[in-house]
Amino acid sequence: MTQSDDFTNGWIAAASCVALAFALIQFVLVSKVQVSNSSTSSTLLNAQALDDRKVHMLSWVSTEIANGAKSFLFAEYSICAVFIVVFGLIIFGLISWGQKSAQDGALTALAFVLGAVTSMASGYIGMMVAVYGNVRTTVAAQRGLSAGTGAVSMTPRGWSYAFNTAFRSGGVMGFALSGLGLLVLFIILSIYKTMYDQDDWDVMMEIISGYGLGGSSIAMFGRVGGGIYTKAADVGADLVGKVENNIPEDDPRNPATIADNVGDNVGDVAGMGADLFGSFAESTCAALVLASQSPDLKEAGWGALMFPLLVSGFGIFVCLISSFLATNIKQVRSADDVELALKLQLVATTVLMVPVCYALSVSFLPKKFDIDGVTSGGVSATNIDAFVCVISGCIGGLVIGLITEYYTSFSYTPTREVSDSCRTGAATNIIYGMSLGYKSAIIPVLVLAVIIWVSFKLCDLYGVALAACGMLSTLATGLTIDGYGPVCDNAGGIAEMAELPESVRDTTDALDALGNTTAATGKGFAIGSAVLTSISLMNAFSVKTSISGSLDDPIVLAGALLGAMLPFLFAALTMLSVQKAAGAIIMVVRKQFREKPGIMDGSEQPDHNECVAISTQSSIEEMILPGAVAVFVPFIIGFMVGPKCLLGVLGGTIVSGACMAIMMSNAGGAWDNAKKYIEIEKAHGGKGTDIHDAVVIGDTVGDPFKDTSGPALNILLKLISIIALTLSSLIDGNG
Fold first, then answer.
1. Which of 62, 483, 504, 544 could form a disulfide bond with 135, CB atoms 3.0-4.6 angstroms apart?
2. Which residues cross the membrane (predicted)?
3. Residue 46 lies in a domain
4. 380 bridge partner residues
5. Which residues have CB under 8 Å from 15's CB, separation 6+?
6. Which residues, listed in sequence order, are joined to residue 379 by a DSSP beta bridge?
7. Which residues contact 633 (CB under 8 A, 6 or more apart)?
């Protein structure tokens, strides 16, 4: 059974609007936590009031973090605006020339611009809500302390209050981005549909791919620029503050601590938001391009063609329902409940998506349909086959997330063994951490291989694209959990700088320790979806150029070797960028400690703005070269060598980049949580020991692994693939 156009459009529009409305509701709930002493008793719970000086410090610190984040985004988006205009004109000229149609060129360029602007808006919304919610999480943690003189323990209601504030802050980004991305794509499709006949829907879908290109282009700048910023400040703050001067993390005496907290938002919130928005846009566009090649799906109606959007739309409803498990049904009452609450979100959304996807498949797809691919003569598939493809991606994403958690959470053996390795020094810590990262790639790669094999056997290339859409069907929950981590991290930094009781920092550290794990889980989810998305785009490129690659063809093999090298080049460039930017921060922090000796005893104040300015300038300058590599390689290879070599480049980049991204993200996450294990659980003597110094060095090495180079590789895979697809009509298929 298939559904009418109005029925299909109504569900997609409703899902988008519900997501945006729910994001607004979450924001209102977060805003009820007031940073003042004039709050009502119902808001204060049974808490101790803050004195005016600490209230002033809370407001000052949060304002400085917000201003620093705005300053960075303004500088970054100024560069992005120039890129959008220039690259949009290039797209218009190339597509108009290749398609012999100014309309096709203009509409592709418009889709590119809208994708880029949507990505920027998503990143900005997420970041501003994060800097709004971080101080309120700090206040919620302080107000949840048990009443009485000298009390230091959190009440069960206080745990729930603090957790819900951070979780809802992440939820604003998760649902706003999901709803906005789906709504803009739906509006573009609805308008473009009036300009093309049903027979030309394949041309229209190729034009729509510009939307994914726009999202991925901005994600490149957001991920690389934000990653360089956050890790340059973090490395500088840790090495000079914690190791050289033996002061706590986020101590207000550290000149780089504001920049460090700003970096959590521009990298882990705005960067991740742009990254996963790009994955959503690109996987959906790839599925639409491949679906439009099937006469059966086009004849079945608009609903069959819009099946990928329906999966995303109903995923929003599933994520919304599941969010109440954490905030209302099974509330967090202690530190031990946090991990269960977050894990339950991942499991619940996946389980609920199974019947939902089955219903969508039998309702909107024809019982049988033929679809073109690389299989000779195409394949004949059923709506149940399509359902299995979607669910394989959804369940595979959950498995990858859980495996990532196992390797990066200090609740499990691998990360505890990383901390144990520090007993013999920093060198053995780094050796063990890298070996853990390599080992952690095995199961995720096997899972991805099974997903690709199953989906390809059932629905050929279209099946792989559906698997990517399935993995991203719970995007709202993934982004919620990922946004939760930086909010808690900032909340702890604000508590330290405002000199709140140590018990407040203990609470935010407990929330943040799981935040680090959820961030690693989110990165695993992002890598998995990036691989499937990139393969879908590569397959769409192969279909559109009517070529197939084989490694017995020297030009394809040469391209594959070149592509396998690209992630190493990209990682080297981003790691060097962090080193350069961190070096500048280290020199400035050392200079301030040297020239202002009163900083240590509080008689002189550090200049935090100097470090913020240096981090901003360095990250903006250093993000250009890696971005240029990702953008121009497909042009150079495609036009100068040919599409067969470019197909090899895409395949080599995906295979090499997937393994490297998993290794770097998980090794960095394990190093980070090994440090948390020593600091929070007081393992191996806790802070102030040689073992702690060794684990801090390992964490410092892991910072650019997990927050710069590793996550940025996702964008490399997707960006070169979507550019290749956009250029497919311009490249001679015989080359």
1. 62
2. 12-30, 77-97, 109-133, 172-192, 204-222, 302-326, 346-365, 386-410, 430-454, 461-481, 524-543, 555-578, 623-641, 646-664, 712-731
3. no
4. 370
5. 179, 182, 312, 313, 314, 316, 317
6. 371
7. 566, 649, 720
Query: Please, what is the Cα angle at 88 between 87 and 92, to 5 degrees?
Result: 115
| Prediction pTM value | 0.87
Residue 41 lies in a domain: no
Higher pLDDT, 733 or 202: 202
Q: Is the pLDDT of residue 71 over 50?
A: yes
pLDDT confidence of residue 152: 53
Close Cβ partners of 446 (under 8 Å, ≥ 6 residues apart): none
Q: Which residues pair with 370 in a beta bridge?
A: 380
Task: Enter the tokens of residue 2.
Answer: 């298939």
Measured from the Cβ of residue 14, the count of other Cβ atoms closer than 10 Å reads: 13
Closest CA to 191 of 178, 204, 177: 204
Secondary structure of 7-65 as H, E, C letters: HHHHHHHHHHHHHHHHHHHHHHHHHCCCCCCCCCHHHHCCCCCCCHHHHHHHHHHHHHH
Note whether residue 44 is domain-resident.
no
Band (421; pLDDT cuts 50, 70, 90): very high
Q: What's the CA gap between 618 and 233, in Å, rounded? A: 10
Q: If we measure between CA atoms, which residue out of 644, 628, 643, 658 comes closest to residue 718?
A: 658
| pLDDT in the model for residue 628 | 87
Task: Look up the domain containing 609 and give its range.
Answer: 5-33+52-731
Distance CA 709, CA 399 (A): 23
**DSSP assignment string, 508-568:** HHHHHHHHHHHHHHHHHHHHHHHHHHHHHHHHHHHHHHT----TTSHHHHHHHHHHHHHHH
Contact 97, 91 (CB under 8 A): no
Q: How many domains does the chain have?
A: 1
Q: Residue 205's Cα: distance from chain center in Å? A: 26
Question: Which pair of structure tokens corresponds to residue 504?
Answer: 């407040």
> Which residue is it, tokens 């030009």?
555
Whether residue 496 is contained in a domain is answered as yes
How far apart are the C-alpha atoms of 657 and 678, rounded to whole Å?
Answer: 32
By CB neighbour count within 10 A (0-12 exposed, 13-18 middle, 19+ buried), where does 608 fall? buried
The neighbour count for residue 149, using CB atoms within 10 Å, is 5
Q: 549: alpha, beta or left, given left = phi > 0 and alpha = psi -120 to 50?
A: beta
DSSP assignment of 105-171: HHHHHHHHHHHHHHHHHHHHHHHHHHHHHHHHHHHHHHHTBPSSTT--PBPHHHHHHHHHHHHHHHH
Please report, as a single letter, which amino acid is at residue 712.
Answer: A
Over residues 476-501, mean pLDDT = 85
CB 662 within 8 A of CB 446: no
Give residue for tokens 């009517």: 546
> Whole-angstrom Cα distance, residue 717 to residue 530?
7
pLDDT per residue as tens digits for the range 596-618: 888 888 788 888 888 888 888 88
- Count of beta carbons in the 10 Å neighbourhood of residue 681: 13
Q: Quote the pLDDT of residue 43.
A: 39
224-240 pLDDT, tens digit each: 888 888 888 888 887 78
Q: Which two tokens stand for residue 212?
A: 């994914």
Residue located via tokens 């957001």: 222
